[in-house]
Amino acid sequence: MNGSNICAFLAEEDEETYDPHKHRKVEKPTSYADTMIHLLKGSIGAGVLCMPSAVARMGVPGSILCLTLIGTFAAYCMHLLIGAQYKICKRARRGYVAYPRCMFLAVQDGPPLLRWAASPLYYFVDGVLVLWQLGICCIYCVFVSENVKQVFDFYGAEISLRAHLCVLLIPLTLLGLIKDLKLMTPLSTVSNVVTMLGFILVFFYLIEDDVELDDDKLRLKTLLDIPVFIGTALFALEAVGVVLALEYNMEEPQRFVGLCGLFNIGMIIIITLYLTMGVFGYLKYGDDIQPSITLNLPQEEKKAQAAKLTFALAIFLSFPLQNFVAYSILWRKIKKKVATSPKSTFVLDYTLRLILVLVPWAVAVAVPRLGPFISLFGAFCLSLLAVVFPGLLDACLRYPSAYGPAHFRLARDILIILFGTACLVSGCYTSVLEIFDDKH
Question: Which locations, inside or outside the cell, does it occupy (predicted)?
Answer without folding.
Answer: Membrane
